[in-house]
Amino acid sequence: MTFRHRLRRDWPLLVMVLPVVVLLGVFHYFPTLGNVIAFQDYSPYAGIRGSEFIGFGNFQRMFAEPAFWKAVANTVSITAVQLAFFFPIPIALALLLNSVLSSKLRNLIQGVVYLPHFFSWVLVVSLFQQMIGGAGLLAQTLRDHGHQAIDLMTKPDTFILLVTAQAVWKDAGWGMIVFLAALSTISPELYESAAADGANRWRRLWHITLPGLRPVIVLLLILRLGDALTVGFEQFILQRSAVGGGAAEVLDTYVYYQGLLVGDFGYGAAAGLFKGVVGLVLVLVANRFAHMVGEQGVYSKS
Amino acid sequence: MSARAVWEEEPTPVGRFGKPVVLALIALAVAFPLYVVVVTSLSTTEAVTRAGGLVVVPRELTLAAYVQLLSGGVVTKALLISVGITVIGTAFSLGITVLAAYGLSRPGSLFHRPLLFIVLLTFLFGPGIIPSYLVVNALGLIDHYASLILPAAISAFNLIVMRSFFMGIPSELIDSARIDGAGEFAILRRIVLPLSKAVVAVVGLFYAVGYWNAFFNALLYINDNSKWPLQMVLRTYIVQQQPLPTGAGGVATGIAGLSPAPGLAIKMAIVVIAIVPVLLVYPFIQRHFQKGVIIGAVKG
């Protein structure tokens, strides 16, 4: 079929896709190109065309900056702590819920634990503040019983555990969905014949359930590792003033403060670009690794 | 109630009693904070004073805080702005997502692969905060409500979910409509959409919740605090604990016949106002989980 023939046939489809392509162009691809200012001594008055190119000047300054490395270290530690303390919880929750026989009870619990996923971070932080903050219920109860009140929302030392607890409260239930779906695809006959062969519940868990979940676990681990430099922006910007930048500064908030609030746009863009490029490399490496261990990964060459 | 399979062991005592306890604790962890916030928002000054802060055991209940908040002032305005952004944004996002999902649902159509690639590639990297800000600024959208809608209007995830649903519609239906002389727009409206109510509803609700919860774009793009959506108000007066402005433009005080609500109740009422719309649409989202729309999509 010739191009003109196909155009005449398919032009309505192209018209339908057009608004999305335009929006992605303006608000995704065009700003992506705008990252050239990371290589400029950018001035908003001179614009991209009028600003001077300084090569890797912004990056040199950034790599010499302890505050930048502090933000990188905070980000990576938070990812590590969340991998250890967040990641297994949805799996455990899915196994627990899957073993509940009553479907009514199962739906009820599912309904309750999915809910916080649909709350905003502002709301989640507000609720935590009311429960365990300085004027919250915990402090209030401690005071009533003659103890010293504690404020868990402003302690830099335990901040990493606080944000992990918030993430668990908000998203552990939601994270469970994928595992429940994977569990539902494991054939009951496997369990039955294993039981007939004398495997008890723990051996069935080890030899049937966990291997059945393996592809999903690997996939989600890859996604999380690829996103190692992204720990969420709103959660941290909301709490940064309460605990201070020492504990709460992550890469995204660093970009926001150093770039936008200080007005050092080129420098901020350099920090943002660093995060974007390292993130992209991490995804590609993690995906490659998944293929090496024989899993599907996120994408493959088709 | 589905019964235990015959080959399964009797549950152990730990399983029989431990499981319900654990499940109850999990449910409580979600529900208890919400309960305390609601009860406190409905409490009188005396009740708050006696409790020494948050109220766990409800006593004298009053709607004073809500009356005060909703009779003009910062919160009323922010609420209206958030409702407006959510309604207009959701309609806009849903409209262009449906169109694009259908436009991309025909493998072999002109430019099908490159266009799909443009959408999928957005998963791999974001443009970055600073360049996005500069583009929004250059378009003159700072302090404009459009900055809360346009940059966040497309979720590639929602688009792909809808596209895979459309692709599952039997092609015989579409082909026969085409033989009858229907154009693509007519096919979308008369054949595809009536078969896709569930996925359209779910994607619409996802967009709506996203707009309602949006805080980041407002933080970046809206400097004028008279244009703040509710989440910004929540952040300023609850999380940052700045005092609510009173009098003109602030919280209306001294409603006739009602004693003024305590400050804490007012704050908790703002939290409740931010939660209620999510709770209202949640049962609809939940119903569609059970139909498997989302699970099917997550599995890909």
Protein described:
Chain A: InterPro entries: MetI-like, MetI-like_sf, UgpAE/MalFG_permease. Chain A: Keywords: Cell membrane, Membrane, Transmembrane, Transmembrane helix, Transport. Chain A: One of its GO terms (biological process) is transmembrane transport. Chain A: This is Sugar ABC transporter permease. The complex is a heterodimer of chains A (302) and B (300). By secondary structure, chain A is an all-alpha fold. Chain A has a single domain (78-292), classed as Orthogonal Bundle (MetI-like fold), CATH 1.10.3720. Chain A contains 15 helices and 2 strands. The radius of gyration of chain A is 25 Å and the shape is globular. Chain B is mainly alpha-helical. Chain B has a domain at 72-251: MetI-like fold. Helices cover 65% and strands 0% of the residues of chain B. Chain B is built from 14 helices and no strands. Chain B is globular. The two termini of chain B are 29 Å apart. The chains are: A mainly alpha (302), B mainly alpha (300).
Task: Give the secondary structure arrangement, pairings included.
The complex is a heterodimer of chains A (302) and B (300).
Chain A: H1 3-33, E1 40-41, H2 47-50, E2 52-53, H3 57-63, H4 66-85, H5 88-98, H6 103-114, H7 121-132, H8 137-144, H9 159-184, H10 188-196, H11 201-226, H12 234-243, H13 245-248, H14 251-261, H15 265-292
Helix pairs in contact in A: 3-15, 4-9, 5-9, 6-9, 9-11, 11-15, 14-15
Chain B: H1 13-41, H2 45-51, H3 64-70, H4 74-103, H5 112-121, H6 129-138, H7 156-167, H8 171-179, H9 184-195, H10 197-213, H11 216-221, H12 230-239, H13 263-290, H14 293-299
Helix pairs in contact in B: 1-13, 3-13, 4-7, 4-10, 4-12, 7-10, 8-9, 10-13, 12-13
